[in-house]
Structures are given as C-alpha cells and as structure tokens.
Amino acid sequence: MEMIVGVSTSFSAAHSIPGHYKCGRIHGHNFKVEVEVAGEVRDGMVMDFFDLKKEVNEIISKFDHTLINEIIEVPTSENICVHIYNELKKKGLKVVRVRVAENDDKWAEIRL
Ligand SMILES: [Zn+2]
Predict the structure, then answer these.
(1) Rounded CA separation 42/5 (Å)
(2) Catalytic site residue 65?
(3) Which of 23, 42, 77, 89 would bridge 17 by S-S if both were Cys, CB 3.0 to 4.6 A apart?
(4) Structural domain boundaries, residue 17
C-alpha cells in the first residue's frame, strides 16, 4: 500500500523582494518548511522520518541565518519552494508536497 509521510522543519533568514513596495526592504522570517513524500510501506515504513528530515535540513541549512538573495535572486516563498522541491527531486525522493511559509498566514505550496 502506498502512503504519504511528512516532516516539518524551519530556518531563520533574511530576504528582500526586489522592486516590491514593502518587501523590497531587507527583513527576516522564521520560515517553516513542510515536505511530504509518497511510497510503498515496507517493513512498516514509507521512509524513516529521521532520514527525511535530514535530507530536508541538508537543503535548508544553506539558507539558515543568511540573506537568501545571495542564493536565490528573487527569494519569494514560491521560488524558495521550487528550489527545495528541485533539490529533493535530485536526491531521488518521490515528493508530493512542499510548503514554505513565511508566517502562519502566508505560504506557497507545490502539490503533485
Ligand atoms: Zn518576506
């Protein structure tokens, strides 16, 4: 049987959105990242939560306590979400959802 498992983690970073009337000024967020992967349940697991979290943290650790603009030119939540999704795909994970939230009430999400 195929199931979905997910983890959430977070990082703190600064960004500015070039040309945006408000977000063009450098400011920070405690970004929350949620990732879900799908797979067959084998030996009672789709994937070890610890391993999945490690893979996600490896990707977001390069953003933590940085100015994200130095890594992504236009670091909107949408573009950060795409970046994380692409990196997870490179690792060969069957990703079905990635969410990047700037706050509790603002997020971008890829759903497959
Ligand atoms: Zn922002």
Answers:
(1) 13
(2) yes
(3) 23
(4) 2-111
Q: State the catalytic residue, choosing from 20, 58, 65, 109.
A: 65
Determine the pLDDT at residue 45: 97
Q: How far is the CA of 9 from the centre of ligand 1 (A)?
A: 18
Residue 102 annotated to the active site: yes
**Contact indicator for 100, 76 with CB cutoff of 8 Å:** no
Secondary structure (H, E, C), 9-75: EEEEEEECCCCCCCCCCCEEEEEEEEEEEEEECECCECCCHHHHHHHHHHHHCCCCCCEHHHCCCCC
Cα-Cα-Cα-Cα torsion 77, 107, 97, 64, nearest 10 degrees, comes to 50
- Model pLDDT for residues 59-81, shown as the tens digit of each residue: 999 999 999 999 999 999 999 99
Q: Which CATH number do you get for residue 23?
A: 3.30.479.10
- Mean predicted confidence (pLDDT) in 8-23: 97
Q: Exactly one of 36, 55, 87, 102 is catalytic; which is it?
A: 102
| Ligand 1 centroid, distance to 33 Cα (angstroms) | 14
> How many domains in the chain?
1
